[in-house]
């Protein structure tokens, strides 16, 4: 081969490599956008509840306690998600479970958008909670295995905040202009949900988490006849030499089965679903993280859900006060992006202490200073302070838990967090029904204070990875 032919061959190979790299980059960008869209949908649901709360009370002629039943319904849904998440993830995988979650959430909006009786409206929120629980667990787990995991995870939760920021700008005009038919708002939510289902299907095409990002480095080969672990079949030889990352698309070679296209759905992981549940539930770190996130999510959604009512009842606001929910969740979004370098510099453990103390100080100002504008501003700043906490918890899980338990632990934590996000707003509503909505601030301060103590247990327990 002449020099010119060599040069042409080299040039062609380089162009092919560049094209392949560009294609891979575009695929990864699409995958990131899609999981961000999932969390945008979850945030959209949480952000719309606050502005619509007064309309629900007026339309159905119900008090604080009864209207708060929507959060109990969400709790039921996310508990079902928590119990079923690992089994379904191992059975059908990320690429099917996540769009199924978006479809179930959309089913809830179908039940809401025609203004049916209140019991049906409450039941619809069971579907919403179930769908959100599945989606949240799956995309959080996937984000921690992507390149630049810390940044992607923080951006993922910023997408949640963005959804919760945008939805009040749609929900509040319904509160002001569509008299007696606020439920039509949920047609918009339904359209977003169906769009998310379609995007998930087209982007991931039913692939499992391992097929999307590759096998975890510490997972071995899937055992089949002829090459089984000696502990399970006497006389065979363990393949100790096969360690490290194995491409997810590896295929069967003779009687040796490498990880196949079935991925997680084969059930041939190092541990089965039940064993993973037991391993997680026997780890104190998991309990501490779940209790902490229960408190954190309870505070976040209680503020987002009741801030509008607080400003109307206690600070003389009007229906435009619904926009304060956008301010709060907008602050949450900003905190999850702007504070990334600060959090990385301080470390996840120390930064959570600092952000919590700041949030408590701002809540004290809202409670003690009777100013409509001041309260609205402080709610936004509370959102900034709370923003980095959830993604910090997700990243700590990846530091302290065995890798095959990441999905299950993140899923359990996410679902317990959703339970907190349902229970605490309900408790707030029940207390407010008896004593007035002013109780929001002292209750949030108390919960944030308790969360500091729980975070101390999380930080101490996670000092050493098992």
UniProtKB/TrEMBL annotation:
<feature type="transmembrane region" description="Helical">
    <location>
        <begin position="320"/>
        <end position="340"/>
    </location>
</feature>
<feature type="transmembrane region" description="Helical">
    <location>
        <begin position="182"/>
        <end position="204"/>
    </location>
</feature>
<dbReference type="InterPro" id="IPR020846">
    <property type="entry name" value="MFS_dom"/>
</dbReference>
<feature type="domain" description="Major facilitator superfamily (MFS) profile">
    <location>
        <begin position="286"/>
        <end position="466"/>
    </location>
</feature>
<dbReference type="Pfam" id="PF07690">
    <property type="entry name" value="MFS_1"/>
</dbReference>
<feature type="transmembrane region" description="Helical">
    <location>
        <begin position="118"/>
        <end position="137"/>
    </location>
</feature>
<feature type="transmembrane region" description="Helical">
    <location>
        <begin position="286"/>
        <end position="308"/>
    </location>
</feature>
<feature type="transmembrane region" description="Helical">
    <location>
        <begin position="352"/>
        <end position="373"/>
    </location>
</feature>
<feature type="compositionally biased region" description="Polar residues">
    <location>
        <begin position="1"/>
        <end position="10"/>
    </location>
</feature>
<feature type="transmembrane region" description="Helical">
    <location>
        <begin position="438"/>
        <end position="458"/>
    </location>
</feature>
<feature type="region of interest" description="Disordered">
    <location>
        <begin position="1"/>
        <end position="27"/>
    </location>
</feature>
<feature type="transmembrane region" description="Helical">
    <location>
        <begin position="149"/>
        <end position="170"/>
    </location>
</feature>
<dbReference type="GO" id="GO:0012505">
    <property type="term" value="C:endomembrane system"/>
</dbReference>
<keyword id="KW-0812">Transmembrane</keyword>
<comment type="similarity">
    <text>Belongs to the major facilitator superfamily.</text>
</comment>
<feature type="transmembrane region" description="Helical">
    <location>
        <begin position="379"/>
        <end position="398"/>
    </location>
</feature>
<dbReference type="GO" id="GO:0022857">
    <property type="term" value="F:transmembrane transporter activity"/>
</dbReference>
<dbReference type="InterPro" id="IPR036259">
    <property type="entry name" value="MFS_trans_sf"/>
</dbReference>
<dbReference type="InterPro" id="IPR011701">
    <property type="entry name" value="MFS"/>
</dbReference>
<dbReference type="GO" id="GO:0016020">
    <property type="term" value="C:membrane"/>
</dbReference>
<feature type="transmembrane region" description="Helical">
    <location>
        <begin position="410"/>
        <end position="432"/>
    </location>
</feature>
<feature type="transmembrane region" description="Helical">
    <location>
        <begin position="64"/>
        <end position="84"/>
    </location>
</feature>
<keyword id="KW-1133">Transmembrane helix</keyword>
<protein>
    <submittedName>
        <fullName>Major facilitator superfamily domain-containing protein</fullName>
    </submittedName>
</protein>
<keyword id="KW-0472">Membrane</keyword>
<dbReference type="InterPro" id="IPR051788">
    <property type="entry name" value="MFS_Transporter"/>
</dbReference>
<keyword id="KW-0813">Transport</keyword>
